[in-house]
């Protein structure tokens, strides 16, 4: 079985995708409650349970209390894998992050100065602000309070398990 489990925050917001084995362990440790199950059964000599599809953390983790960590992946997630200049949705490998106020002009690498950008738009903008380059941002960058789960290798939006559908809002 290669089932993946959607882990929700205590507030029922998608947090991340974990292996079913981790979800089962967390369930037995009392850290999560199982919300949805797959039809597949997990069997041992003394136990038979259904594979967890969606679980919810019972308590927030320390990471959740501190807020969302700044990283390239989290910037792409915040911006929906969409260039914030031309608006085209792309794969992660086709995007980089861009300093709205360039570093050469004193811009910092922080949430409210970084946006996802395709290579063409980044090249056009160069070391200028969007205004100086005659470009417009789709949305002003802000530090997010939470993020949708990161895409899993080989799992596209079209292949989200049916059991997750009510918990994953489509951003496409």
UniProtKB/TrEMBL annotation:
HNH nuclease domain: residues covered: 70-123
Pfam family for this entry, one: HNH_5
InterPro entries, alphabetized: HNH_5 (IPR029471), HNH_nuc (IPR003615), NA-targeting_endonuclease (IPR052892)
Transmembrane segments: none
Source organism per UniProt: Sorangium cellulosum (Polyangium cellulosum)
Protein name per its UniProtKB record: HNH nuclease domain-containing protein
